[in-house]
Amino acid sequence: MEVSTKTVMAIKSYQNQAGVLVKNYLLADPFIPYTSIIGGIILCKMVYDLTQLISSFYIKTYAGLTKIQRIEWNSRGISSIHAIFITALSLHFVFWSDLFSDQPHAGLVTFRSSPLSVFGLGVSVGYFCADLGMLLWLYPSLGGMEYVFHHSLSGIAVAYSMFSGEGQLYTYMILISEITTPEINMRWYLDTAGMKRSSAYLINGIVIFLSWLAARILLFGYMFYHVYLHYDQVSCNSLKICTYHLHLILLTVYFHCLEKLIYTSDHADIVL
C-alpha cells in the first residue's frame, strides 16, 4: 500500500521536531549531566533485562539458580557492560584524545572538559546509582558494607568531577581500572556454572592477574606520577577546590584497592 505524500511529510516533520528537541534540550550542555545520568540508569535496566532474557535461553544452569543468584547474575551483566563502555572511553581520553594533552594554549589540564567527557561520566554515575540501589535493596545479599562504601565514594567522586568539570583526567585514569571487572564477573559466572576446573577458568584467572597488574599497579603509578608533574596546577590557593577533588579521588583509589584486596583474600584461588 502506497504511503501518501501528506503522511510522509508528517513523519518528516515529527522527525525534525524530535531532532530539535534532542539537540536543544537533551544534548544541550546544561542538560547533559542530568540526561546522561538518567540515560545510564535506563541502560542499566535494559542490560539487566537483556541479560536475563539471553541467559534464560542459552545458559542451561541459569534456570537452576536461586532467586538471589539470578539477580546477581543479571547485575554482573550490567557491571560488565558498564566496565567495557567506560574503559574504552577512558582509554580514549587519557591516551588518544587531545583534550588532556600537554598543550600550553589549552589551559590547565585539571580544568578541561568536553560534552563527551561529561556525558561519559554521567552514564557512569547512573550506573553507580543503579547498582548502589540494588546493593541497598537486597543488602547484604549482593555485597557487604565495603561494596556500599566503594560505590558511594566512587559515585560522589565521579559526580563531582562531572558537575564541576574539575579533575576529569584523573577520574578517567581511575575508571580505566574497570577493565578488570568483566574478568572478575566471568570468574563468578564460571564458578556458579560449575566450571571451576575448566581450562577457561584457568585462562580467565591469568587474564585477571595481568589486567590487575596493568590497571591497578602500573596505571595508578602513572597517575601519581602525572599528579606530581602537574601538582603546581592544583596546589595554589585560587585552585584549592580542585585539590579537594584530588584528595577525594585519592580516597576513592584507597577504598577501590581495599575492596579488591578483600575480594582477593576471600578468593585466593583465582589462578589456581
From TrEMBL:
**Keyword line:** Membrane, Transmembrane, Transmembrane helix
User: In the UniProt record, which is one GO cellular component term?
Assistant: membrane
**What is the first-listed, main subcellular location in coarse terms?**
membrane
Q: Name one Pfam family in it.
A: TRAM_LAG1_CLN8
Which positions carry the signal peptide feature in this UniProt record? none
The TLC domain, residue ranges: 68-263
Subcellular location per the Swiss-Prot or TrEMBL entry:
Membrane
Domain of life of the native organism: Eukaryota
Transmembrane domains' residue ranges: 31-48, 77-96, 116-140, 202-224
Q: Which GO terms describe its biological process?
A: lipid homeostasis
What's the name of the protein? PREDICTED: transmembrane
